[in-house]
């Protein structure tokens, strides 16, 4: 009986921890239109999200993109419930890449709840992203 209760408690705590941790979300055009901004309806920027966001525009073949991917994953967990981090594969979502003029990658679009997005071009360290999150997205 005690063993069963212990297993139940462990499973409950594990599921609660899993729910609190957030992963980077793979985004396609339809998700962008639904959750970020419907540029097909208006040329004006109107963010739809409830939380500030970062969009990581990347490609599977891109070395610097591969180096920043773990940083984005760590930040998604550290800032779970405060921001959302999306990733967009520029080879699969060329229209979204063109929307942000992603002529080189990685490209990171920082989207505050209010106001216009800002862009970080190229790979950067975790400290750069944390500063941008704390001073721009969560200010």
What structural class is derived from the secondary structure elements?
A: alpha/beta
In CATH, what is the homologous superfamily? Answer: Glutaredoxin
- Give the overall shape, derived from the CA principal axes: globular
Task: Sketch the major β-sheet.
Answer: 5 strands, mixed
CATH topology: Glutaredoxin
Number of domains: 1
Low-confidence stretches: 3-20
How confident overall, as mean pLDDT? 89
- Number of E-type strands: 5
- The N- and C-terminal alpha carbons lie at a distance of 50 Å
Task: Estimate the helix proportion, in percent.
Answer: 40-55%
CATH architecture: 3-Layer(aba) Sandwich
Radius of gyration computed on alpha carbons:
17 Å
The succession of helices and strands, N to C, reads HEHEHEHEEH
List keywords for this structure.
139 residues; alpha/beta; Glutaredoxin; disordered N terminus
Q: Could you characterize the architecture of this molecule?
A:
The longest helix has 19 residues, at 2-20. The protein has 139 residues and is α/β, with parallel strands linked by helices. It is 43% helix and 17% strand. It has one domain (22-137): Glutaredoxin (3-Layer(aba) Sandwich), CATH 3.40.30.10. It has five helices and five strands. A five-stranded mixed beta sheet has the order 1-3-2-4-5. The chain starts with a helix and ends with a helix.
């Amino acid at each position: 009986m005690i063993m069963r209760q212990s297993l139940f408690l462990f499973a409950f705590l594990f599921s609660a921890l899993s729910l609190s941790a957030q992963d980077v979300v793979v985004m396609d055009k339809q998700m962008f239109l639904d959750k970020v901004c419907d540029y097909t309806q208006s040329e004006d920027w109107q963010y739809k999200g409830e939380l500030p966001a970062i969009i990581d525009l990347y490609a599977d073949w891109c070395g610097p993109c591969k180096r920043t991917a773990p940083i984005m994953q760590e930040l998604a967990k550290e800032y779970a419930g405060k921001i959302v981090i999306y990733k967009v594969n520029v080879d699969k979502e060329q229209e979204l890449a063109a929307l942000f003029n992603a002529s080189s990658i990685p490209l990171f679009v920082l989207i505050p709840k209010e106001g216009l997005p800002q862009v970080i071009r190229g790979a950067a360290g975790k400290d750069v992203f944390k500063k941008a999150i704390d001073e721009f997205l969560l200010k």
